[in-house]
Design goal:
463 residues; alpha+beta; Outer membrane efflux proteins (OEP); 11 helices; elongated; disordered C terminus; efflux transmembrane transporter activity; signal; MdtP/NodT-like
């Protein structure tokens, strides 16, 4: 007999599993994708459907069961003057040559299409996990670097108050610094909320409690070479699961058209029998064959249906092919733009913004500069690093498995940005970083928001 506390033990065990950390060390995209695929409950069900579809191949490509019949004459039972009367027959149905092979091929193509649906589901989960990882990286960088920005603002506030106390500046300078710090406190709260949102999204993918803790993100993968667009186009068309599924279904439709044409030809039934009721022993054994007479009406309608289905799948295949190439071109252009943005900001705008901030601070300390100019230089410094971070997150979240070596180079560009952050020793504005995260998660593919280069506050309003 079960212990009365056994159900509570099961509940506690389930709760412990919901909070258990499946990761050893920092969170990486490979580890996150692996756990998401391992925990998703839909994939086993889809694999079972795939196995069921494969099992239909043998069912469609085998002969029908032979038919055996037997009968006897009850009046001859127990009659010594009469021989026992009985009949037996065996019949086998043989379809027109080629029909079974076409049925098996059509079932095999349908099974292949079902298998591609499993690959498509894995791809969707992989992309969702990598987008969530990109947001996780971004929000952690924003939180860490926002603290450094706040320390710098606090030093500027102290400087303004010292100058005001000594009579070398107005009280308005200190008030401006306090306002900026208050806004930074609000942006910190918004970033914390965003961090919880991303954590909830990742835990939902992992089927864990939304409040379960997650480790900080790890480093980006090592760099690889960028493939040419022509190679990526060929790879995308060859590897897209939905395109492969449509191609398999189109092949199955072609087989059904051929099968519908073969349906105008008859099937055969071969049989043999033995009948002891005949007194002449030479007549007791019989062999024979029969065929059906195919009437054209129903078969012509079935052929028209198969042809129409083929036309529909051909149209969908062309549409999907164009969609794949459009998505590839869009992602390629956006990542190319992000790479250009990274180079531009690393080589020109980031040094200029750093020099502008240093010059504004030196001028204010010397008494020849205005505090608002110093705050403006500070905001420009934040905006430059925001655009740099947005470009890196765009590259990271624009990943596709068919890009192969290209993905590594794009991730390498993101690693260069991370190195810039570490070398600069300063971070992006917290609330501004949030707008980029929201844009990426809302677009699904990581589109670069705010192309005009304007800065945004924590609530997404241009500033």
């Amino acid at each position: 007999m079960l212990h009365p506390l056994f159900p509570f033990f099961l509940l506690a065990l389930a709760g412990a599993n919901a909070w258990a950390d499946p990761f050893d060390g920092p969170l990486t995209p490979a580890a996150l994708v692996r756990e998401v695929l391992a925990r998703n409950p839909d994939l086993p069900a889809m694999r079972a459907a795939w196995a069921a579809a494969r099992a239909r191949i043998a069912q469609e490509s085998t002969f029908d069961d032979p038919v055996v019949s037997y009968g006897f004459a009850p009046g001859t039972v127990g009659e010594p003057q009469l021989d026992f009367g009985q009949t037996a027959s065996l019949a086998v149905k043989l379809p027109w040559p080629g029909k079974l092979a076409l049925r098996g091929d059509a079932a095999a193509r349908e099974a292949e299409a079902v298998g591609q649906s499993v690959a498509e589901a894995r791809l969707a989960l992989t992309e969702a996990a990598r987008r969530a990882f990109a947001d996780w990286v971004f929000v952690h960088r924003a939180l860490a670097l926002d603290g450094e920005d706040r320390k710098r603002l606090e030093r500027l506030q102290q400087l303004a108050e010292v100058r005001y106390a000594s009579g070398r500046a107005s009280r308005q300078d200190a008030l401006h610094a306090r306002v900026e710090l208050a806004l930074r406190d609000h942006r910190r709260l918004v970033l914390e909320r965003r961090r919880r949102e991303v954590r909830t999204r990742i835990n939902t993918l992992l089927l864990r409690d939304p409040r379960a803790p997650l480790p900080p993100p790890g480093e980006l993968p090592p760099p690889q070479d960028l493939s040419a667009l022509a190679q990526l186009r060929a790879r995308a068309l060859a590897a897209d699961p939905r395109l492969r599924a449509l191609a398999a279904r189109l092949e199955a439709a072609h087989r059904r058209v051929q099968l519908a044409r073969r349906a105008f030809w008859p099937d055969f039934t071969l049989g043999g029998g033995y009948n002891s009721l005949w007194t002449d022993t030479h007549k007791r054994l019989t062999l024979g064959a029969s065929i059906n007479i195919p009437l054209p009406g129903r078969r012509r309608a079935r052929l028209d249906q198969a042809r129409a289905e083929t036309l529909r799948l051909e149209a969908r295949l062309r549409q999907r092919r164009a969609q794949v190439l459009e998505d590839l071109q869009d992602v390629y252009d956006r990542v190319g733009e992000s790479r250009h943005t990274i180079r531009l900001y690393r080589t020109r705008l980031l040094p200029l913004a750093r020099q502008s901030l240093a010059a504004a601070k030196s001028a204010y300390v010397a008494g020849s500069g205005d505090f608002l100019d110093l705050l403006t230089a500070e905001k420009e410094w934040i905006a430059v690093r925001l655009q740099l971070a947005r470009a890196a997150v765009t590259i990271c979240s624009a990943w596709r498995p068919w890009r192969g070596s290209a993905a590594g180079r794009w991730r390498h560009e993101g690693a260069l940005v991370a190195a810039d952050f570490r070398c600069a020793g300063d971070g992006m504005g917290g609330g501004q970083g949030l707008s980029a995260c929201r844009t990426l998660s809302g677009q699904g593919g990581g589109r670069t928001g705010n192309p005009q280069g304007r800065t945004q506050s924590g609530d997404g309003v241009d500033s």
